[in-house]
Design a protein that fits this description.
By secondary structure, this protein is α/β, with parallel strands linked by helices. It is about 25% helix and about 20% strand. Strands 1, 2, 3, 4, 5, 6, 17, 18 and 19 form a 9-stranded mixed β-sheet that branches. Strands 7-16-8-9-12 form a 5-stranded parallel β-sheet, with helices on one face.
Length: about 375
């Protein structure tokens, strides 16, 4: 890593900055380092979390490793011998930490990235809490965990009970003896509901759309079709939907049992929130102590705003992993690559594309970045 000729005021000079050290960021960093970029000289990996593990380190303790759906190993090192009864935050956090150490990725943390903007000489200027970096290219792998989505409904501020989001979910014990409303039809919502139902006085489940439970195996062809639907949104410059939103909910034995007990009897979306619960336009009301918003997350990309990458539809249009509006910027773990296996593939694809960019003459590389 070299200082700029102005003494570092315009940033330490690197070839690639990777923002985020979750599955996608580590995959990209691995492939970039294997292609010849040396961490802390040509390549720097920045992560704002306090320790290794990506978003997994923030998962609730009752989400044990055995309950995790589809955790795919990072490239070059399998995760073996994990205790299925240990919290996933511990298992995967330890695995990521060992991975970073094994491959010498030298992740900088905790480091906050505040903005990425146009720099001097065709470089991007990455402004961070440890100072600026002037980079030829950028891999954005910031995921979604930092941007929980809270819907807004009339009367929400009047509710006298507790409201929290999946991002703050502490596990079921805190809901013992309480009347709990879970909002959201995704995997997290159903997992929360099934856990809480064992200890709560009563539970209610509300979703905007009728949940779709998926029977049978989910094979490669089904996976490709689901990813293609998300890719189409991203190609059109729309905000990406999650892959899970187009796959349906897997009908496991636990889900079947919960449905048989009435735990997963779904109510339509309420019209407003009252001081003691929620109400529908047909006059129905439910009084609850807690509203748990399992309403998903949005892409954490506000720091890219100075580059003006967003399309009118609200998303960043990408081809593969490359931002259409700026070929120096790649997004991994975004849209169709938000799954763990998709993040691995995206990391490899971004690294391959960036190696081609970096081997061009400087003027030619700059011309590729509109």
């Amino acid at each position: 890593m070299r200082e700029a000729s102005d003494g570092g005021r315009s940033g330490r000079l690197v070839d690639v900055v990777v923002i985020g050290a979750g599955q996608a960021g580590l995959s990209a960093a691995f492939h970039l380092s294997r292609s010849g970029l040396e961490p802390d000289r040509d390549l720097v990996v920045l992560d704002h979390a306090p320790r290794a593990g990506g978003a997994w380190q923030f998962r609730w303790p009752s989400l044990t490793y055995g309950k995790v759906h589809g955790m795919h190993a990072l490239p070059g090192m399998e995760l073996t011998g994990a205790d299925p009864d240990r919290p996933s935050s511990e298992v995967i956090g330890g695995y990521f930490e060992e991975y970073e150490r094994t491959f010498g990725l030298r992740v900088h943390r905790p480091v906050d990235v505040t903005a990425v903007r146009e720099g001097d000489g065709g470089r991007l200027l990455v402004e961070t809490s440890e100072g600026p970096y002037a980079t030829r290219a950028l891999v954005n792998a910031t995921g979604t965990w930092d941007r929980p989505f809270w819907p807004r409904y009339p009367g929400q501020e009047t509710f006298r009970g507790r409201q929290l989001h999946t991002a703050d979910y502490p596990g079921p014990a805190e809901f013992a003896g309480r009347r709990v409303l879970v909002v959201g039809g995704g995997a997290s919502g159903t997992q929360h509901l099934m856990e809480i139902a064992d200890v709560a006085a009563d539970t209610f489940w509300v979703t905007r759309r009728e949940p779709v439970f998926r029977e049978g195996p989910f094979g490669e062809s089904e996976g490709r079709a689901a990813v293609a639907l998300v890719e189409e949104r991203v190609r059109r410059g729309l905000a990406p939907g999650s892959v899970v939103s187009v796959t349906g909910l897997p009908l496991s034995d636990a889900v079947r049992a919960a449905r048989a007990r009435g735990v997963l009897d779904r109510l339509p979306m309420f019209a407003r929130i009252t001081p003691t619960g929620v109400a529908w336009d047909d006059g129905r009301t439910v009084d609850v102590d807690v509203i748990l918003w399992a309403t998903g997350f949005r892409a954490a990309i506000d720091h890219l705003a100075p580059l003006r990458l967003r399309e009118p539809g609200g998303g960043i249009r990408v081809e593969g992993t490359r931002a259409v509006r700026d070929g120096r910027v790649h997004l991994v773990g975004y849209g169709p690559s938000a799954s763990t296996i998709g993040a691995n593939r995206a990391g490899r694809a971004a690294a391959s594309d960036l190696r081609r960019l970096l081997t061009r003459a400087p003027a030619e590389a700059t011309a590729a970045a509109p």
